[in-house]
Amino acid sequence: MSSTATSYVRFMNGYYSRSDYFRADVEKGTIRTPTGTRICTLTDDFLRGFRSAVQFECGKATDRVFKSSGKRWGASFVERFDRELTEHFGVPLQDMSAGIVERCLDEAFRYHGWGALSIDLRDYDSGFVSIETRDGPMSSVVGTSDKPSDALFTGFFAAVISHYAKLELDCIQTECPTRGNETSKFVIGLADRIKEVPAWVKDRIPHTTILRRLTTTKS
Amino acid sequence: MSHLRRKSWGTLWAKAGWDGTAPVVEPLRIPNTTAAPLPQLTGHVRPRTLRMTAFGRLFVGLPWNGPPKPDNSEVNFDLPTSAAYEDSAQLNTAETLHEMIS
Lengths: 219, 102
Description:
Strand content of chain B: under 5%
Number of strands of chain B: 1
Radius of gyration of chain B: 26 Å
Distance between the termini of chain A: 46 Å
Radius of gyration of chain A: 19 Å
Shape of chain B: flat
Oligomer: heterodimer
Strand order of the largest sheet of chain A: 5-6-8-7
Low-confidence stretches of chain A: 1-9
């Protein structure tokens, strides 16, 4: 650490923003990360078609299927995220400052094309955490819809935060661009404490009002 | 909320009040004024004094020193000092990070 008059914190170049993070092998036709994880690039048209196909096959269970898939994806992602960043920074991720890890998570989202992410900890003491994403892959291809469209990410966030909290947490999307909101917003908490949220979302109650109701309701 | 971002990532999620047992604002507790008998009204205790006594008892135990302060006891912002870190540390994002944590 330098001991200059203005003590800036030195921070390594981002892991995901490094120029060689995506390594293309033209002969094999593959893209891999530095640790060998295979990357698959999907077009908006593919995502739109994939979503339509799942809706056709699963009907009303579509969101549940996406959420379940998101949980599996989140569980494998968080395992990689832990391992790769621990190796990159040389310290266990759990011991790193929350501000830095949040920045890395946002960077992972941006560089994989999943949108921009921010975590809102204002209701942290009450046991609720909000996550906001902008330009998410699903919400940007769906168009308009009555229901929030990022069910995949509700499962993803639930798995990721559950992993760190060592508790089984649930995540519900409260706002979505497909319903006219500017960004996607999610609330995370114990499943029993946010069980009423889907009904409020159906009634188009804003995210801030939902959080106010949650924090003033006795558990 | 910047003090939360200075916690370690592991501590941040382990210490959240997930079950709602760590509310930010403690509920206001007013002592039960009927628990202890009020002094008997005798000739030398004027009614006004008695009322003041009961009024005063209402406010016993209030947090007169202000609301509880945020717990900063677990702030952990020690950064790695390994050789690999020192060698490749860059300053190009330092200002952004500095703003974020300050």
